[in-house]
Amino acid sequence: MKQKSKKVYVLGSDSTGWSIDKDRQYTIKAIKYIDGYEVVDNIFKADIIYAVWWNQLLSYKFRIFNLFFKKRVIACITNDLAHQQKEIKSILSLADIFVYANSFQKDQLFELGVKEEQLFFNPFYVDETIFKKLNFSKYELAKKFNIKYETIKDKLLIGSFQRDSLGTDLMKPKWQKNPDLLLEILNKLDKDKYLLLLAGPRRHYIIKKCKEFNIPYFFIGNEDYIDKNQDDLLVNALNIEDMPYLYNLIDLYIVSSKSEGGPKAVPEAVLCQTNIISTDVGFAKDLLDNKAIYKDSYEAVKLINNVIDNNIEFNHKVHQFYSFDNFKNRVENILKAIE
């Protein structure tokens, strides 16, 4: 007699097509390929709740549900727990398994008393069939984004595609992304030799500062919203299919964040064979060569100059983790551990 499939409800969505929605999409896809499990749309029918966004376990609605319907729960940690100690402590008894994306999260959970056998590493997946080296010239890539080739010719193209302005006040920086460190780095470089390529919504703060410090930049999007201090979230958001073209266009991506769960820019850039340097944040040290990690703007500038002069080679660890089969196998191990 065929064994009955375990029913899995995937919890977590912000309904904007952003990172969490992609995590949900790929987790559901992975489960559908795993024998013995099926995805259900009704949480009441589920045997297992797979929370791709652990914060949703904090909701009043889920807590009421959990009082009456005890389910096995998998909690995926999506951010830096150092700033959410009270919140994470409140769900420790609700979850059976904790999925961490980086070593910082594992250490934090371990310190809170989570047992080793409850902890599973699964860095946020990005699609290696989308993020890859493309066979297009710089001229062709620039043309795709309506950039005049003369604007970028003989320039070091530095990319930044993150939302780094506060949603509540677009002229203030999002502290987690730390755009001021990026500006500090750019101010130390020869401004005749590089161009900052900005893309994505809510770049108001860094564009304002680029103008203030005369930092050369090009914004891919409608800058009218920036000038009018209006939210461009629904206007300047990029399709994921466009992102690999951006990574292939630039020469270097800089992560300057103070606090991250990822960022996904790390595997995205590496899969596109684009140089990347990062602060020691999120899973940067788990996935990047240690030589690509910098502590301050002085170290970053030194790194950038070595990249320009081809005096450094990176041996990143991204490819050890990034294929859909690897991701599916990790999800399968997580599900089997909860039985």
UniProtKB/TrEMBL annotation:
- Keywords from the named record: Transferase
State any single GO MF term. glycosyltransferase activity
State the organism's lineage: Bacteria, Pseudomonadati, Campylobacterota, Epsilonproteobacteria, Campylobacterales
What Gene3D superfamilies is this protein classified in?
Glycogen Phosphorylase B
Q: Pfam families given for it? A: Glycos_transf_1
Among its keywords, does the record have Transferase? Answer: yes
Domain (Glycosyl transferase family) ranges: 175-315
Where does this protein come from, organism-wise? Hydrogenimonas thermophila
InterPro entries in the record: Glyco_trans_1
Please state what the protein is called: Glycosyltransferase involved in cell wall bisynthesis
